[in-house]
Amino acid sequence: MYKRFTRCSTLDAARDCWGIYALKKNASYVHFSDYNDSVIDNVLTETLVANGLASEATDSSRIIASSGDWERLSKGLKEEFDIILTAETIYNEDYYSRLFEAIDSTLAQSGVVYLAAKSHYFGCSGSVFAWIEFVKTKKNYTIDVIWSSSGEGELRRDIIRMIKL
Question: What average pLDDT does the segment 8-19 reach?
Fold first, then answer.
């Protein structure tokens, strides 16, 4: 259905386990992005070294990193990705348009997005249900929940898969 980790992007890198996994599974390259430049400048290198990828931290042929708002990302990047990995990015419905534009403008045809999220966010307007309904209005994606946590008494967490048609 999709190319295996050839060109990968992560949104909101932080201590990006998914991007690290993609590098370890021999992605051609991984684009790490985060709103805060300090995360890219400080945390990303530390995380690469801690995961045995010190050579990747100094060899930029497989790593691209950028910081800034999703709107800037959607207008600034010219490459397309086969897979986009992101977590906890749907916490506020006010940002859905910018997040979707960043995804849509950088995801290749037949590309896949995996988005991990809480079922809903307290004090914010975002939720898995609201994101799915938002994406359904765009008509050029299939979207479904492919995994949900089932721990009793805890806030449910989901993994959403989006495929660009």
Answer: 76
Counted residue by residue, the chain has a size of 165
Above 80 in pLDDT, residue 58? Answer: no
Structure tokens at 55: 């050579």
For residues 121-136, average pLDDT? 92
Torsion angles phi and psi, residue 155, rounded to 5: -70, 125
Q: Which domains does the chain have, with CATH numbers?
A: 7-164 (3.40.50.150)
Nearest Cα to 105, choosing from 125, 67, 78, 130?
Answer: 78
Question: How far apart, in whole angstroms, are the C-alpha atoms of residue 120 and residue 44?
Answer: 28
For residue 82, which phi and psi values (nearest 5 degrees)? -80, -30
